[in-house]
Amino acid sequence: MRRPVLTSAWSSTRKTRMVMPLPRYAVARRLSPRLPAGKRGRAYWTPVAGETFMDLPDPSFRARRRIAAPALLLAFALLTAPLSGTALAKAPPDRWQAQVAQTSAGADTAARATSITDRLDALGIAWHAEAFELDGKHGRNVVADLGGPADAPLLLIGAHYDRVDVGHGATDNASGVATVLELAQALKARPLQAHRVKLAFWDLEEQGLLGSRAWVATPGQEKPALYVNFDVFGWGDTLWMMAPQSDTPLVNALEALSRQQKLGFQPGDKYPPTDHLAFLKAGWPAVSFSLVGGDEIPDILQVFAGQKPAQAPKVMKVIHSPQDGIDQLDARNVPRALRVLENGLRSLDAKPAPAPTD
Fold it and tell me: Which of 49, 135, 143, 281 is most open to solvent, judged by the fewest CB atoms within 10 Å of its CB?
């Protein structure tokens, strides 16, 4: 997710700079000699007291220490998780949290990618890396194939895995990565019948949706029947859906399923910019999901409209700041949200739309 303030965020482009109320903790404008070339001179939020990752004397050593515990937790969760068609119905939030911790512990983008490919390997899902260059920047998307009937339309599910230079990118967007991997586990255990399914983990979203834009622009790229995006899936009581149309079979199914799970559901075409835009701008169908507090949504939309809400929503206090760590997550409603999403996709699969034509 690109943020409309000082740095790129929950995903406004760099051309969209809006004033955002500062969080309640003290802030300081700092220039860090450890920032990559081209990043120096930008303002970053940081608490007056306490260290950030950029302040550590030996980041690689600290990163290895942080990775060890999450890796063990994730391995245990994978070994003990049910691999039946009801995997998401029975799985506790521990496995999701362990994956978020593993991904956000990565000291750099390559380490975050490794946390994803390790999970895919453990699940027996084939994957490959796709290098790209766009706008003078180089990145690497990770694409996995769950298979399906050869002549079936493509369902693409994805999330960006890169982060900004400050914080650990737990909410933005290790949470979305973990959500895609949970759905992958469920769809691997009980495949869809009328769709082929691929997963995409985008690089350089925070630099202007570069990974997803490069993928869409690849000559001969297959147009999916639907792209399903996840960005900021960290807490709250409401499944927030970016849906260009509010009265579709998928929206209607998700609304009914959310009621059954006693989970809030808010669809609509007003939503922070993120990787779904690369698809919509190409004329390809796409939706996006977040898990946040329902009372945050109006204030978030105010921020992205360039307005100043009475109180800054939690999302805008956390993402792209030193606070974006696993301690900000609340996974209590994640299992219910995952059940809604899995069953919604299965409902879509039961009544698939015709394969798109170019």
Answer: 49
CATH number at residue 136: 3.40.630.10
314 lies in some domain: yes
Residue 121 lies in a domain: yes
Other beta carbons within 10 angstroms of residue 221's beta carbon come to 13
- Could you read off the pLDDT of 18-38 as tens digits, one per residue? 333 333 323 332 223 333 344
- Both tokens of 340, joined, read 């809604």
- pTM for the predicted model, two decimal places: 0.78
The encoded tokens of residue 214 equal 């490069």
Residues 215 and 284: their CA atoms lie apart, in Å, by: 12
Residue 55 reports pLDDT greater than 60: no
For the chain, the residue count is 358
Asked whether residue 27 is domain-assigned, the answer is no
